[in-house]
Write a structure and sequence with these properties.
It is a single chain. The protein has 3 helices and 15 strands. By secondary structure, the chain is α+β, with helices and mostly antiparallel strands. Helix 1 crosses helix 2. The longest helix has 20 residues.
Length: 239
């Protein structure tokens, strides 16, 4: 089992770890800061630094078949460390932080547009959500104004856990129709934006909405008769 350190601290950039095994899909560590691809958020990039100083480029992180393991995929031609080897696992912080900002902004977007979410993707400082908005008229300027007003509230963002049964008793917490929160382990992770939003999510997020920075709505596309795709992009930094 890989201990997912990013779930408790999304700001942790590196950790010492031990190579547990070599899987066809990548290297398995006993603990990691690498977020594995899922929920519309890409897997982290970064590097593994061995005791001798050699560096192995990690091009992606994914879940194993049973989701208890996280696989670190190396660049083609990389030498594989032996099981038991000690490494320093370090993420590409620049891309991670851009994704954290974008992911939190997309949660705020679901508060601005209270429609069922039919799809979505998180990018490096940008992202999109698909909404089953029916015949509603969506205006780019109005959405951006409301989104930036929520960002400016500097609301705290935190995670908490509820049981599978509690989630089943509160189906309204689930906003995404295309991605259902994983259940079966007895508990489900929620992300709360204080006073604004609460929904199941396994992704990485900033600590306060002010870290997101200025957001722009860059496009609204028609995807079917009732679905609309809303794209956002963030300023280069929150400063």
């Amino acid at each position: 089992m890989t201990e997912p350190l990013f779930r408790d601290d999304a700001y942790l950039r590196e950790t010492e770890a031990i190579v547990s095994s070599i899987d066809p899909g990548g290297i398995v560590l006993d603990r990691t800061v690498f977020y594995p691809q899922g929920g519309g958020q890409p897997g982290d990039r970064g590097e593994l630094i061995l005791d001798d100083g050699s560096r192995l480029a990690v091009v992606n992180a994914t879940y194993g078949a049973d989701r208890s393991l996280i696989l670190h995929s190396l660049a083609d031609g990389s030498s594989l460390p032996a099981p038991g080897a000690r490494v320093l696992a370090r993420i590409d912080w620049d891309s991670r932080f851009k994704r954290m900002r974008a992911h939190t902004a997309l949660h705020l977007l679901t508060a601005v547009l209270p429609y069922p979410v039919t799809g979505g993707a998180v990018g490096d400082g940008e992202g999109r959500l698909d909404f089953d908005s029916g015949e509603a008229t969506l205006d780019k300027g109005e959405i951006a104004e409301k989104l930036n007003a929520l960002i400016a509230r500097d609301a705290a963002v935190r995670t908490l856990w509820i049981s599978d049964d509690e989630l089943a008793a509160n189906p309204g917490l689930v906003k995404t129709m295309s991605v259902k929160p994983p259940t079966g382990t007895g508990r489900v992770r929620l992300v709360e934006i204080e006073g604004i939003d609460l929904q199941p999510c396994g992704g990485t997020h900033v600590r306060r909405t002010s870290e997101i920075g200025q957001a722009a709505v860059t496009g609204i596309e028609k995807k079917g008769r009732l679905n609309r795709r809303v794209r956002i992009a963030l300023s280069q930094s929150a400063a």
